[in-house]
Amino acid sequence: PNLFLKSTHLDSFKRKRPKARTKLKLDNQEIVDLRFQMEQLFGVVTNKLEGKVFVVSGVFESLSRDELKKLIEDNGGKVSSSISSKTSFIIAGDNMGPSKLEKANKLGISIISEDEFLKMLDG
Predict the structure, then answer these.
(1) Per-residue b/e over 33-68, b at no fewer than 16 CB within 10 Å?
(2) How far is CA 23 from the centre of its chain?
(3) 10-residue stretch averages of pLDDT, the chain, 123 residues long
């Protein structure tokens, strides 16, 4: 498999004239090792939520709104502040605004809890 990385992020890639992108040919073990190192540096990153758009609304029990948004983005999803036909899910906490609830129901958007969202990441 091919992997594209910025050479400035790899200490082992010392060149006289580093290129902005360097094409590497890696075997499976090297990919696993590199992914582990990236997770250590940047946090867990997956694509489990790729192509999905989330709106975060209300007050949550175990995570802050910013922590939820970071989890969405770290797992390939997008965060929007407003509900539209492009919204995939609304993560609803306590005191979700009634206008957001009405719009979500009108557009047929799935409303999930914080726990349901966290289960999506575990699956």
Answers:
(1) eeeeeeeeeeeeeeeebeebbbbbbbebeebeeeeb
(2) 25
(3) 46 48 64 65 77 95 90 92 96 92 95 94 80
Q: Give the global pTM.
A: 0.65
- Of 49, 48, 60, the closest CA to residue 92 belongs to 60
CA distance 49 to 31: 21
Contact 4, 21 (CB under 8 A): yes
Sign for the CA dihedral angle at 74, 76, 80, 83 comes to negative
Which phi and psi (to 5°) does residue 92 adopt? -105, 125
Q: Name 89's bridge partners.
A: 54, 110
59: which strand partners? 94
Give residue 8's identity as a one-letter amino acid code: T
